[in-house]
What we know:
single chain, alpha/beta, elongated
Amino acid sequence: MRRATSLLCFLIVMLCGTVAMAASPVNADGYYKGIKLCGRVKVVEHFADIKVKVVDSFPDLRVKVVSSFPDDVGEWQFVEYGEDFTVQFVESFPDIKIKYVNSFPGVE
C-alpha cells in the first residue's frame, strides 16, 4: 500500500511539472507569438508587442540586459528607436514573465 501511494505521489508530481512546462507562453526556441525574444527592445506605455511582468521566481524567460550584440535568446538591449519589438511593463495580466539575470539568459 505504501509503495502504491509513493508511486501515485510521484506520478502526480511529474504530471504537474509537465503541465506547468506546457503552460509557458514562450516556446523552447525562445519565441512568443512569432517574436524571437532577443534583440533591441523599446519600452512603451501603450500598444506594446508584448506585455511583461518582472518576477523573482518561475519566469518564462531569463533576461540579461546587454549594451551591444543582443543575439541570443534572453539578451535584450534597451533602445529608443530601431527596435526589434516593444514591451510594456505591467503588474497584471502579462503575456510573459521575466527575471533579470547576470548570466545564463534564455528559456527556463
